[in-house]
Amino acid sequence: MNRSLPLLVSGLLFLACCDAAPRAASTGINLSAEDAAAIGRKIWKNECAGTVEGLTSWHQGEDFASLGIGHFSWYPAGKEGPFDESWPRLIAFMQARSVPMPQWVAATADCPWNTRAEFEAAFRGPQLKELRGFLSGTIPVQTAFIVERLQQALPKMVDSVPLTSRGRLERNFRAVAGSGSGIYALIDYVNFKGEGIKETEQYKGQGWGMAQVLLEMEGRPEGIEAAAEFGRAATRVLTRRVKNAPKDESRWLAGWSNRCATYGKPL
User: How many Å apart are CA 211 and CA 215, to the nearest integer?
Assistant: First the structure.
């Protein structure tokens, strides 16, 4: 077992005891500390192979660092990509909860590494080692941040789609959220590919976020089958993204599909 996993479980139990366990009356989502811990472990495994070193990454061909269990994006100064920059919001979330962190992390607005080459050169250096230590010690808070993002996603998604699609989107969301596996699927996908409400997160006018997946779902599945159908719909949406992409993204599709296939499995 990874040394950080007991910290994950104990930290989430602490959050639950303090009535800070993630829940959202507006979406009907309630997570026990046990389910939240399982979800945190799954996201960590998906994004970072469950390793501490995987908590700090910079992927080939990208202009930003990917940090933490959710690979929260952090852009260097002057760089703006099509994807939502989530690292600053994670830090603000932690600061609002008085989470101890290295002073330079709290004080640095922009990613201090300007390129992937700079990041790779500094990977074994003291700053990134300190950052990995900080991230491995705050897994429960990162999970809570991801859960909060899900709680906030439904009304934004509903507002973003045509009136004729709103009922279908909300119905499918609630169906998927009806099981622990479905809650994991929603949490993981919104962290993985976003809500699907930004025009910049589209290729040829077609998005690949959670809203698009919910509208892609077929039938009216319930329980864990809804989570499985969400995963199948996600694979179709991501396959469409690859076909529409201006650059070749096919190397990622197998991994994305394997990840989505986990959505219909028990926690």
Answer: 6
